[in-house]
Amino acid sequence: MLWIIALLTACSPDKSEKSINMLHQIEISANQSGKELLARYPNQVVLISRPPNVNFYSMDWPRDALGAVKIRNGTRAFMLNDVLGISGNEDPHFPDENIIEWNIYAGLGAEEHIPHDEARQRMMRILNNIRAAGWRHYIERSLPRLKGAQALHFAITSPVHSLDPTYVPDLDEWMSLPADATWRFQLDHAYLTLTLTRDMERLDRNKPGAYFLKLSLVGSKEEARQIVGPAKRSDWQNALASELPLLKQDRDQAEETLRRRGVVIDSAYQDPSIP
Predict the structure, then answer these.
(1) Residue ranges in 86-196 assigned as alpha helix (H)
(2) Which of 26, 23, 263, 39 is nearest to 161 (CA)?
(3) Tally of structural domains, the chain
(4) Residue 265 belongs to a domain
(5) 274 inside domain
(6) For labelling, which of 183, 213, 261, 275 has a CA lying 20 to 30 Å from the CA of 110?
């Protein structure tokens, strides 16, 4: 399974013998202080500093003893099990934001191969746990506001569109998902992206498949910088003011095209506030 091996190798910038002495569970949050993280998990978190003054924090768990990560936002939290590794990084240009992005790498279970319908049910349970912790569906500002089966059908032809976490696909719909299916959430000043990757050579529904889950957690300011792109990152606030009308224009055009096809737009959806 070369595709899984490559993904697992990317869990952290470097390996360390600290991974042998792992706690089963760790708690993280958006814009978490790296110093506080090291103080709380001094024998488990690996710190790597690279020029120019960029700090990376990571933990990895062995395949036969997977970890659990609690993702906290204020008083609310949810747990993700079967975690292979996590990595977070700071940006020296924005030191007050501490760890600007977390990436979490996990399976849908401890086993490497699982039946496709079992994978579907496990993914739905993960999404339900996230929603129960208060996270709400987030639609990127340039994309049409779709929900339910319509969001799924649009995502099949336009994989950049995220799926509706409240919608439970049947097995036929599940098997039609792209190689990388995404669900996006927002809560207060944090954004969460789940990307489910599966082995496209194991799509026989009568045989087990292979799935890999990546979660990305950022604060609202980092989300805004990702909207404007790396070229405008240093001046993201001014760039965002110019970018937002263009994103709205893209959304309006896409929604008008879909309306003419008879697709129902979720006009009740409202974008979260900008930092």
Answers:
(1) 116-132, 148-157, 171-175
(2) 263
(3) 1
(4) no
(5) no
(6) 183
Coil/strand/helix, residue 81: strand
State whether residue 141 is helix, strand or coil. coil
Q: Which residue carries 């026989």 as its tokens? A: 204
Render pLDDT for 65-114 as a digit per residue (tens, 0 to 9): 999 999 999 999 999 999 999 999 999 999 999 999 999 999 999 999 99
181 belongs to a structural domain: yes
Task: Output the pTM of the full model.
Answer: 0.91
Angle between helices 220-228 and 236-260 (to 10 degrees): 70
Give the helix/strand (H/E) hosting 241: helix 236-260
**Domain membership of residue 83 as a residue range:** 2-260
Task: Measure the CA–CA gap between 55 and 87, rounded to whole angstroms.
Answer: 11
Do the beta carbons of residue 187 and residue 207 sit within 8 Å? no
Contact 193, 130 (CB under 8 A): no
Count of other CB atoms within 10 angstroms of residue 100: 21
The beta strands (E) that lie in 45-91 are given as: 46-50, 54-60, 67-73, 76-90
Confirm if 205 and 175 have CB atoms less than 8 A apart. Answer: yes
- CA proximity to 78, closest of 122, 115, 127, 43: 127
